[in-house]
Structure formats: structure tokens, C-alpha cells
Amino acid sequence: MTPDQGDDDRGTGLGDIQDPVAALDAIAAEISVAREMLARGDAVDLHGMEVRVTRFCEQLASLPPGSGQSVRPRMLGLIDALNVLEREMRQVFDETAREMGGFSARQRATAAYGRTGNR
Length: 119
Hints:
By secondary structure, this protein is an all-alpha fold.
């Protein structure tokens, strides 16, 4: 499952940042969906969101100096939200790694006891 709507910009307002507030709100909504999916234990694919964020930043950089100041607070909030998502994803990764490590240890123990009992 993915929190995004594919790699195109339909419905996101990110193809042209005439309304950067709406574009940032759309990205923030995607981050919220990704966090909800992660909390449910669903797989999260952030590729489409990454493409849109990159496009947004490129387009924002091409605007006249100072014209992006109005969205600065929203962008800082978006960075905070991305940092929270990253922490949550790392926690899930760490938990999964611990579970897999425990599974491997159980497998090794079972294999070792199985060999001893068959002698």
C-alpha cells in the first residue's frame, strides 16, 4: 500500500506551485496517511511522495527571491512531520530486526537440539 496517489500530480496541486500552501498541505496529508499505515503494520511506500517533494523544492527554488517566505512555517512543520515519520519507521525496523534475530536464534537452537536427539 502507498500513501500517495502515484507518481503523477493529479489532485495534488504539485505540478505547478501556484498554490504552495495547498501543495504543502497535500504532502502533509500524505505523511499522516503514511503514519497511520505504519501504525496498522501496513507496508509504506514513500517513493511517490519523495518525487512530489523533490519537484516542489525544485519549483520553489525557481521562484523569485523572498516569494517562498509565506510558506516557511508550513515547510518547517512538514520537516518536523517527516522527522517523526522517520523515527517511527526506524522503530518498526528495529523491532522487526529484533524479532528476526530471535527467530534465527530459535531456529539455531531447534536445529542443534534436533541433531543431538538423532544421535
